[in-house]
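A favour, since you know our structure tokens better than I do. It will help me judge whether the discrete encoding reads sensibly. The space below this message is yours for that.
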Amino acid sequence: MNETIALLQRHRSIRRYKEASIPEEHLTQIVRTGQAASTSSNIQAYSVIAVKDPVKKQRLTELCGSQQYIIDCPVFLVWCADLNKTQTAVRLHEDMALETNVEVLLLGTIDAALAAQNAAVAAESLGYGIVYIGGIRNNPQQVTELLQLPPLVYPVFGMCVGVSDQEPDLRPRLPLEGVYHEEVYRQDGIDDAIRAYDEVTRRYYASRKGGGQQTTWSLEMYRKFNGKPPRAHMHPYLTSQGFQLK
């Protein structure tokens, strides 16, 4: 195992931060490393907004489901799929509207995710901790207004970045057989992997720091998806931002 692999495999989500700022040169390197990620056809269909203002972070905390670590971290990065810059580039040559569909939405979303993960690894290599905030999509219209996002831009997720003030347990992942297939997808392998993982997560949840729980991974998945699909408001929001989901 080399140093890079060791760093990646030590990843933990950090939700408590020390009162320590991030030097601007570090933040610049984190974002530049994000820019080095793969991007489809060099479209670079993403943007990132750094939020440091305490008042704005407080509002984002409220919009994201009262997650205190957004306030506590020195920098909250909002990663956005951004086809506005693509629209702008096209209009340098012809005054035409950018045609969008589900594929275009996916291009921006995937680009944002790839760039953000590069940035996360860069931040951790510099000694910082991070946690992704999917709650940025709880109230996307209000986030759009707060951050003044133009059409064809939407917030994919947030990311807290700062000096860690905790040492959380390393959360176990599915066994390799649960994610890796050769030649074809093997459903029987998935079933067996989940059963094995449930035993691992049963012990993990019961013994982890902060209080034990009697649960398993499959039970948590059942609880999460046993009902209405999450964030059904995203479809009308995305269409209101100019994404045609066809």
Observations:
- The chain has ten helices and four strands.
- The mean pLDDT is 95.
- Residues 176-224 form one domain.
- The chain has two domains: 3-168, 176-224.
